[in-house]
Write a structure and sequence with these properties.
The protein is α/β, with parallel strands linked by helices. It is about 40% helix and about 20% strand. The protein has a domain of about 90 residues. The strands form three sheets. A three-stranded antiparallel β-sheet has the order 5-7-6. Helix 3 packs across helix 5 and helix 3 packs across helix 6. The longest helix is centred in the middle third of the chain and has 20 residues. The two termini are about 20 Å apart. The structure holds S-adenosylmethionine (SAM).
Length: about 200
């Protein structure tokens, strides 16, 4: 997004990329990009306000996301655009596949929801955001709801497998899924061309 925005705003525009962990944007060497390692809840930029602020899969990781939202709105120019892309993990499920495998996938999905809940993070934030923004008084809301079906081996499926491998201990600690479920989940995410579909967002 940072690289794309830098190309879109052109020579006279400016893009500020903010994350607690900037390792994936640190190597962007474009004169119209500034990379800031900062907490979006408390970031204060004296001389900057923005035509557009974008966040993807960020608010869902912040228990007090309202603080982040309020700060983003403060940093926005009057009439500016706030573009948020947030998931609703409660919609994730195995759609097609062998019964036992689908049950394992669904148990791992339950573990993911439980893990978010245990950390006071709202796993269904994406579906609630429009109402939250309405309540905050925002006008001209435009809402799109995507429900992609991912075939095994697709980019999203591969990413979910990598997440499961990295977070396996935390998933198991919820008591909702076992190591066997996680192994099954990982195999399922990579089975291609045999009608193994998951819905994940
Ligand atoms: C799932 S990643 C999404 C990364 C990126 N936005 C994307 O779409 O590829 C969530 C990111 O949110 C960042 N993050 C979490 N809490 C944050 C906060 N309070 N302020 C800034 N960044 C935060 C994490 O460091 C992580 O890089």
């Amino acid at each position: 997004m940072t690289r794309w925005l830098a190309g879109t705003v052109g020579e006279r525009g400016k893009v500020v990329a903010v994350d607690l962990d900037t390792r994936f944007v640190a190597d962007i060497n474009q004169h119209n990009v500034e990379v800031l390692e900062a907490d979006i809840r408390h970031l204060s930029l004296e001389n900057d306000s923005f035509d557009l602020i974008h966040a993807r899969y960020v608010l869902i990781h912040i228990p007090d996301f309202q603080v982040a939202l309020t700060n983003m709105l403060r940093l926005l120019k009057p009439g500016g655009w706030l573009v948020l892309e947030e998931p609703d993990f409660s919609a994730a499920r195995a759609v097609v596949g062998e019964r036992a495998a689908c049950q394992s996938v669904d148990r791992v999905n339950q573990a993911i929801l439980q893990m978010f809940g245990n950390r006071s993070m709202d796993y269904a934030l994406g579906i609630k955001l429009p109402a939250i923004l309405q309540k905050m008084g925002l006008q001209q809301l435009c809402v799109e709801n995507e429900a992609p079906l991912s075939n095994g081996g697709s980019g999203v499926a591969t990413m979910m497998k990598m997440s499961a491998l990295q977070l396996a201990e935390k998933y198991i600690a919820t008591g909702r899924a076992t190591q066997e479920d996680i192994d099954q989940y990982c195999r399922f995410q990579m089975m291609n061309g045999h009608g193994r579909y998951t819905m994940q967002r």
